[in-house]
Amino acid sequence: MRVDGKVAIVTGGGTGIGRGISRALAQAGARVVIAQRRVEKAAVMADALRSEGFEAIALGVDISKRPQVQELVTRTLQRWGRIDILVNNAAITGLPAIAPFLECSEEQLDLIVNVNLKGTFICSQEVARVMVRQGSGSIIHISSVAAFAAQEGASIYCATKAGIIGLTRAMALELAPYCVRVNCLAPGDILTETNEALLDELRAHGIFGQYARRIPLGRRGRPEDIGPAVVFLASEDAAYITGATLVIDGGFLIY
Questions:
Q1: What pLDDT score was predicted for residue 211?
Q2: In the chain, N or C: fewer CB atoms in 10 Å?
Q3: What is the pLDDT of residue 199?
Q4: Which of the residues in the chain have pLDDT under 70?
Q5: Does residue 164 contact residue 119 with C-beta atoms inside 8 Å?
Q6: What pTM, to 2 d.p., does this model score?
Q7: Minimal CA–CA distance to 8: which of 88, 70, 78?
Q8: How far apart are CA 40 and CA 110, in angstroms?
Q9: Which letter does DSSP use for residue 216 in this model?
Q10: Which residues pair with 60 in a beta bridge?
Q11: Do the bridges between strand 85-88 and strand 137-142 make them parallel or antiparallel, or are there none, so unpaired?
Q12: Please, is 241 exposed, middle or buried when counting C-beta atoms within 10 Å of its C-beta (0-12, 13-18, 19+)?
């Protein structure tokens, strides 16, 4: 699977799952824009990829702010002239997204919805306009198994991730006439820096062991497990796939 010469934007591409996605796309031949609110994190990843001979740049963006997303698109076009792949990976996860339903504040609701769902919508809309003019493109959303399996204390997070799957299908339908494909990945438990703090809380309450036993493949996922799936959906090998959601969870949802 190759995406040689394609220009890819990966939001949240400097850390966690996004880091694995950025690396996989670069290794498959893409020119990668690593877009992140904390641009210093993106810069570290971009520097690492360039040191290995890949093409990558880092740009700062708050995906919930349309003017910043528009600037991201403009600067990408100025650098490479087109956008072929968008991976909507940036999201609020872990402890900031955890609170019992009856205790969730309106501020917390706005924060998580604005980034996880509204941010995905804004990025998709701005990039899709470019792809429609080009007559081609692939947009890949990162959802979660939380869209299918409720997680206690994560009602807002679950709602946003389920919303992303609905958005995937609606976008795929509307953009298909322009040869723009839209698909979604739903990862399970992936070993990242953000998740470690959350898992410490689960371990403290004796919950993690129960959770881990529900993964038939017997291990937690790694960012490297997600990247190849993104490359596949972005490549011509997936030219007849749109509106789909691929679950990558070690079998967690089998139960």
A1: 60
A2: C
A3: 65
A4: 194-213
A5: no
A6: 0.94
A7: 88
A8: 26
A9: T
A10: 36
A11: parallel
A12: middle
178 is an active site residue: no
**Looking at residue 201, what is its pLDDT?**
58
Tell the CATH topology of 7-248: Rossmann fold (3.40.50)
Domain residue spans of the chain:
7-248
pLDDT value of residue 208? 52
Bridge-based pairing of strands 137-142 and 180-187 is: parallel
Q: Which two tokens stand for residue 123?
A: 């990025």
Helices (H) and strands (E) in the chain, counts: 9, 7
Please compute Rg for the chain using Cα positions.
Answer: 17
CB 230 within 8 A of CB 24: yes
CA neighbor of 171 nearest in space, from 140, 148, 130? 140
Task: Give the single-character DSSP code of 154.
Answer: B
Choose, from 157, 178, 211, 240, the residue flagged as catalytic.
157
